[in-house]
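Fill in residues.
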């Protein structure tokens, strides 16, 4: 009987995420999927597993993308295979808006009360009664105090271009989170689109090679170049599109070589066949686009190859 093995997984870095995190183990050979929740300390022990290649994915309900996804080889040994998984705290950053103390209006209220008490005795004058200089001076002083209190009130509560640093900090955090998500999502989207593009390219190249009964050297060159592109799926846009442009030129040269190797009576039919034209169109798009810097430009290239060949993503996946 085959020896069973075990994983010992440890989430590290942000203990607050351990409560709701979920670990998914997928056996690449059998397709078996096991989902478990770790303890609050982030530890998880899963026994009675078949040895071989497993995909370990850690997800959290508060995140769109997985915390981690990696491929681990499990060996048939009695000691569990230890898998440390770092959990960056900044993935869960959600700083509350800073509490700014309310403005203290007590001094303004006290000044208003003092002004009211100061001018109260000046009221009740009869017609023709003399207003003494001291009364006028008291009134003028009270008006000055009132003006100062109103001015202070406008600085405390009026929206006269004042800052809200606590809201500004929160907006900066939200913008940073959005940028991080957009960057991660953009990378994932480009990598997925590259995989589908290379899957379609390999099938189209194989169809052309089989149609023209291509020599082994041409087949090996095509396979090597497409394999190299697949190994570069996670590189930046500039590096990948540079390799793609060189591959496109090599494919065009390869099609021409296979065409020249055809018998005279079959050469024109081969070059004008839908399969050959499809590969020429795709390779021509790669060459014409060349090296680009932006992901959206790279994605636009794959859109044009899809239009040129009339292929759909669903057809690529199904092998149509």
């Amino acid at each position: 009987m085959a020896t069973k093995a075990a994983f010992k997984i440890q989430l590290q870095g942000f203990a607050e995420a351990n409560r709701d995190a979920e670990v998914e183990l997928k056996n690449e050979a059998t397709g078996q999927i096991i989902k478990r929740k770790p303890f609050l300390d982030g530890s998880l022990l899963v026994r009675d597993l078949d040895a071989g290649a497993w995909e370990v994915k850690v997800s959290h309900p508060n995140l769109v993308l997985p915390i981690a996804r990696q491929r681990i080889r499990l060996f048939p040994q009695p000691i569990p295979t230890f898998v440390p998984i770092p959990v960056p705290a900044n993935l869960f950053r959600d700083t509350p808006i800073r509490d700014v103390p309310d403005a203290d209006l007590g001094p303004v209220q006290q000044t208003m009360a003092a002004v009211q008490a100061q001018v109260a005795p000046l009221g009740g004058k009869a017609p023709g009664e003399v207003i003494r200089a001291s009364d006028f001076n008291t009134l003028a002083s009270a008006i000055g105090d009132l003006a100062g209190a109103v001015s202070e009130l406008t600085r405390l509560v009026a929206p006269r271009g004042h800052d809200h640093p606590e809201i500004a900090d929160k907006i900066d955090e939200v913008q940073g989170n959005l940028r991080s998500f957009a960057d991660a999502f953009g990378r994932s989207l480009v990598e997925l689109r590259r995989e589908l593009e290379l899957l379609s390219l390999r099938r189209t190249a194989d169809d052309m090679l089989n149609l023209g009964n291509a020599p082994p050297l041409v087949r090996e060159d095509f396979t090597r170049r497409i394999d190299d592109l697949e190994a570069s799926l996670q590189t930046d846009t500039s590096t990948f599109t540079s390799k793609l442009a060189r591959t496109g030129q090599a494919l065009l040269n390869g099609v021409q070589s296979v065409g020249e190797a055809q018998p005279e009576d079959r050469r024109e039919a081969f070059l004008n066949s839908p399969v050959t034209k499809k590969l020429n169109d795709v390779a021509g798009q790669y060459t014409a686009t060349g090296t680009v810097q932006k992901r959206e430009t790279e994605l636009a290239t794959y859109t044009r190859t899809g239009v040129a060949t009339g292929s759909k993503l669903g057809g690529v996946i199904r092998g149509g």
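Residues 314-318 have pLDDT under 50 and may be disordered.
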